[in-house]
Amino acid sequence: MVALTYALNQERPSRTQTQEPMAVSLDAKPPIVFLSGERIYARPFELCDVERFQRWLNDPATRVTLAHHLPLTEKMEREYIENVGKQQDAIHLCIVLKEGDRHIGGMGLHQIRWKDRAAVFGIFIGETAYRGKGYGVEATRLMLRYAFETLNLNRIELWVYDFNKAAIRTYEKAGFVCEGVRRQNRFVEGRYVDESIYGILAGEYFARTR
Fold it and tell me: Which of 50, 162, 179, 207 could lock 194 by a disulfide, CB 3.0 to 4.6 Å apart?
């Protein structure tokens, strides 16, 4: 909002005076905001995101923490994003910094079982410069708020490799608790690794937030 003020000794324009209209750019598009946090917001996937997702998911430093190990082409990622809206059991969102509208990662609810009110959560920060700055925790909390307070889900779970300590800290800060370990469940970088199961219930979430 712009306020126009005048000094006490300055003559105000009369009602009959005309003023030049302010120039407004018709090309400027406001961001699409689906969920809003303090420093980030979440929006739906768009085709303009294809290049970034392809780059991130092919990056060995990112791929090593995900259940993804095959090359991803631009065509494959484009087709995936085009079909996202047709999925009845998943919700996909981009993580975007409010400052500069910088797209830095993605998150989603997968394998949603509407009858059981349960889903699997997944998240990654693709831009390495923005890791370790708390954006993952904020995004996780944002998604939990949506899952429990809007979708009325009762249980959210996730799976994480035992060596991914940064992700484990993120999940625990957001309220997830370890429920068990699948021993040597994944083969990663030449060795079998344990995979932990983390979960959070609606009652636990509301106990932390109210």
Answer: 162
Selecting among 41, 135, 161, 171, the annotated active-site residue is 171
Query: What is the reported pTM?
Result: 0.84
pLDDT in tens, 127-185: 999 999 999 999 999 999 999 999 999 999 999 999 999 999 999 999 999 999 999 99
Distance, CA of 114 to CA of 105 (rounded, Å): 26
Specify whether 198 is catalytic.
no
List the domains of the chain with CATH numbers.
Answer: 35-209 (3.40.630.30)
Residues in the chain: 210
Instruction: Select from 151, 164, 149, 47 the least CA-distant residue to 109.
Output: 151
Q: 122 pairs with which residues across the strands?
A: 108
CB environment 63-91: b (16+ within 10 A), e (fewer): beeeeeeeebeeeebbebbeeeeeeeeeb
Q: What tokens does 68 get?
A: 């993804």
Contacts for 187-194 with beta carbons within 8 Å, 24 or more apart? Answer: 188/64, 188/161, 188/163, 189/64, 193/161, 193/162, 193/163, 194/161, 194/162
Query: Measured between alpha carbons, how far is 4 from 14 in angstroms, rounded to an integer?
Result: 15
